[in-house]
Amino acid sequence: MSYRFKPRFYEIDGQGVMFFMWYLGHVDEAVDAFFADRGLPHSTWPSMGFDVHAVHVDVDFSSGVRRQDTIEVQLSTSRIGGKSFTLGFEFLRDGEIACRGSVVYATVSTEDHETIALPDVLVKVLGDVRPPRD
Fold it and tell me: Which of 5, 58, 93, 128 has its CA 20 to 30 Å from the CA of residue 16?
């Protein structure tokens, strides 16, 4: 699954590259599209009694994203555990990796926000596990 964007003016810092916090904002947009594209939009999760919390993020930068760049964020499921899963991401500019990383999400109950086992419906839409490429 991929999500495309061009950085907005206010996302660019004084060095002419996208400020680091905006990378995760775009990952969040890509994750939302990832689940919507697979038929399980985030807005439906609370009615099923679950949600997820981001509990760990890794980002490795290769080169900065600049103002006029068209970026494609590619996501894949890189791990499925009992109560959590990991989505890997890459920011591509003209096929070259600008940054890559992963986000670990813990599944929680909407009732008390305690961790719970991954619901079957979520496991199904996560699909096949594809470890990140080296």
Answer: 58
Is residue 105 a contact partner of residue 84, using CB atoms and an 8 Å limit? Answer: yes
Name the CATH architecture for the domain at 2-126.
Roll (3.10)
Provide CB contacts within 8 A for 19, sequence distance 6+.
11, 12, 13
Residue ranges of the chain with per-residue pLDDT less than 70? 132-134
What are the residues whose beta carbons fall under 8 Å from the beta carbon of 76, sequence distance 6 or more?
1, 87, 88, 130, 132
Q: Which two tokens stand for residue 112?
A: 């008390």
Question: For residues 24 and 31, is the Cβ–Cβ distance under 8 A?
Answer: no
- Taking the whole predicted model, whether its pTM rises above 0.70 is answered as yes
